[in-house]
Design brief:
Layout: H1 23-35, E1 40-43, H2 46-55, E2 64-69, E3 72-82, H3 87-106, E4 109-121, H4 123-131
Parallel strand pairs: 3-4
Antiparallel strand pairs: 1-3, 2-3
């Protein structure tokens, strides 16, 4: 009698499931990642920041737009950079942070991250306004 292979146990078929991630979720993740980059003063252009202030609080996706197509995503970020910081370095740090965070949290593939610097923030100008006349 030859050794016959034993029958293999077959796992029961798993029902197919899916997870849908809305573009607003990706935008919030990208917003948070950019907000943590040194040299980013604010996200959004002047108009979007003004509208956010009228709402009474910082909107968590201001300055971030997302184009979600299946399992890939393109992200556009508009920001204000602190004067004296290297704009290319700040933009690259933002791209790196957004890509790492979005891909690790969502599992989506980030195809492109476009950065627009809409303004420069001068910290000493604000300090002069807050200090007032001597």
């Amino acid at each position: 009698m030859a050794d016959e292979p034993e029958p293999q146990a077959v796992a029961p078929a798993q029902p197919e499931t899916s997870v849908e991630i809305h573009d607003s979720v990706v935008a919030k993740i990208a917003h948070q990642a950019c907000s943590e980059v040194d040299g980013v003063h604010a996200l959004g252009g002047a108009t979007s920041r003004a509208l956010s202030s009228l709402r009474g609080s910082e909107h968590r996706t201001t300055g971030v737009t997302v184009d979600l197509r299946g399992t890939t995503v393109d992200i556009d970020v508009t920001m204000v950079v602190v004067y004296g910081k290297s704009i290319p370095q700040v933009a690259q740090a933002c791209r790196d942070g957004v890509r790492e965070r979005v891909e690790s949290i969502t599992g989506l593939e980030v195809k492109a991250i476009n950065v627009v610097v809409a303004d420069v923030y001068f910290p000493e100008a604000e300090a002069g306004v807050q200090g007032g006349p001597a």
